[in-house]
Amino acid sequence: MAKKTLIIVESPAKSHTISRYLGDDFVIGSSMGHVRDLPAAVLGIDLKNNYRPFYEELPAKAAVIKELRRLARAAEQVLLASDPDREGEAIAFHLQQILRGDNPRIQRVLFNEITRASVLEAVRRPRAIDGHKVDSQQMRRLLDRLAGYKISPVLQRKIGGPLSAGRVQSIALKLIVEREKEIRAFVSEEYWTISVELLGSRKPSFAAKLEKHKGKAVHIPDKESCAAVLAELKPEGYILDRVQRKSRKRKAPPPLITSTLQQEAFRRFRFPVKKTMQLAQQLYEGLSLRGGETTGLITYMRTDSFRVSEQARDQARAHIAAAWGQEYCPAAPNVYKRKSKIQDAHECIRPTFPFHAPEDIKAELTPGQLKIYQLVWERFFASQMADAAIEETRFDVKNGAYLFLSKGEVVTFKGFLAVQKGDGEQEVLPRLQEKENLRLLKIDDKQNFTKPPARYSEATLVKVLEEKGIGRPSTYAKIIETLNKREYVTSEEKKFVPSDLGVKVVDYLEANFSDIMNFNFTAELEKELDQVAAGQLDWVTGIDRFYQKLAVDLEKVKDGGKVELRTGGRCPECGGDLVKKYSLRTRGWFVGCANYPRCRYTERLASNNGKAEKDEVIEKSCPKCGKPLVKRFSPKTRRHFIGCTGYPACRHIESENEELGACPQCGKPLAKRFSRKTRRYFIGCTGYPDCNFVQKG
């Protein structure tokens, strides 16, 4: 019996999809992501031997590795089909290292899209693993390990708590903290604006805003100054002094890449970065449409490239001509280039089958999948369409020495706007002649105040990180998750607000690790990763440049003192400063007196990291011992409960839950409870263990 070819992909979902495309001569296996990594308990890097890494098989993947080795031994050859990026190349390398003793015939295949044609073509053209890409990923992994394992313990010793630092994570936090400091330092100033509504010889009426006085920009600081200007304006003195009309082109936008997909999904749908990437992954790995063959609907979603394959471009142009008309196709195909060198191994994010319009397949997709697919589909076709033609009009309206301005535009040819709507067109102005007398319909004066810069949202943080060349868009979701997990930031109206802890961490890192907190230095490391991937730089050289600077900083902080997280409050027992501390016993933060151990005063912190309320004595006695009951907060369950003041001698507790009705099995009251095993709330019978009734909370 002939041996089969083993193809190993990263995820079971992808395995299920491609298995439908290949015949009985193939067996599909899944690595479930990475199979080897640096050890968790130690640094795993030989600093004295060219930064040699020590990889180990992941314990959690023991069963997966065992099964893949069994399949490899029984196979004619092994094709490694992990994702087409540096991380995927590294996964392929580690699989090769593990399996080469079982089957030496191992090659690499790349799927930029999970479609039948793409998969069959890739299988026909296997190649060797790209060592330069593997080196680039290894350099990135070691850089992150050095930053995390060398700096994080310093933060934990000097500040306390389960703190962490990271090559990109700390820069992202710095951006958030710097913006918050700008906001806190901002002093709002009052100013007034004046606008008028005017009507000429033709409708419609239009609005114009006061801009200049005697050729200079108008600044109206207060109500008195505004009243003085209004007094000088003549109700019958509005003249259309000048009309300017010019035509311009609005260029079609480039197709989506990882960062712009994340930004657009947040801007339009308020999707967090993590959710956007999860939905895009589902569309990439494949869905079944109308019960037919499972197929990927978009190309690989982790890409920095605007490149479009010739086949996809030709399909798009044919569809555009058929759906909108030949005039919507540009004379020559649109080509977009990035300013900096990027990973160009695969294409932009685009639909794999352009004729699958969102409206046609919406019944097959979840609401979230449909929104992401629509973003990709619309942006791809817009990128391949002709530019829009716009006629811009500007009115200069004079009233004595004052000049009012009004701007408007008309779309004379939609071009790409036929598929992708703009952010809203400007006002359409009427066809009027210069020197016309205009009739005043309304005048408005408005008090305003200057506003501080806006806090970062996930979308704007992603945008600035990419603009500064910090990190890769594919890692931003994990970075944002870490900032929240470490309690460095909180969210208000989907905007990042740094906690006091986050500010202290940035201040400490700025003072002691200035190199890794330098935007240019961190961006330069990203360029070096690209150079390693292109075979232009040895990865050891790149690592050494980073570590030599880090080693100097680590030596400087050895003898430095601890950082106190002062709350600004005073201890009610001894008058000392109150400071925020971390308890290894409860694994949580609390407020304590700086004079510990002489003073042992403490306060709890609420779940939002603010000061918790004191125990609240309630008008009820303990049914067991007769002592007063108090309302308390449990840091373990993050909920309030009612307990006896006689604790620990008396352990009576009561739930503070609302009335939930009677148990349908035994009739006793139901109560909401917290499971330490599942870390979730559930509703259970108070008659437990005699009655085992439970339902979801």
How does this model look, in words?
- This protein is an alpha+beta fold.
- The chain folds into 6 domains: 4-129, Rossmann fold, CATH 3.40.50.140; 139-186 and 454-556, Topoisomerase I, domain 2, CATH 1.10.460.10; 190-251 and 388-449, Topoisomerase I, domain 3; 258-383, Topoisomerase I, domain 4 (Orthogonal Bundle); 565-604, no CATH class; 618-696, no CATH class.
- It contains 17 helices and 30 strands.
- The strands form 9 sheets. Strands 9, 10, 11, 12, 15, 16 and 17 form a 7-stranded antiparallel β-sheet that branches. Strands 2-1-7-8 form a 4-stranded parallel β-sheet, with helices on both faces. A 4-stranded antiparallel β-sheet has the order 20-21-22-23.
- Strand 24 (616-621) and strand 25 (628-634) form a beta hairpin.
- The longest helix has 28 residues, at 131-158.
- The protein is globular, with a radius of gyration of 32 Å.
- The two termini are 55 Å apart.
- 33% of the residues are buried.
Task: Supply database-style keywords.
four-stranded parallel β-sheet; 30 strands; Topoisomerase I, domain 2; Topoisomerase I, domain 3; 697 residues; seven-stranded antiparallel β-sheet; Rossmann fold; 33% helix; 17 helices; alpha+beta
Summarize, please.
With 697 residues, the protein is an alpha+beta fold. The protein is built from 17 helices and 30 strands.
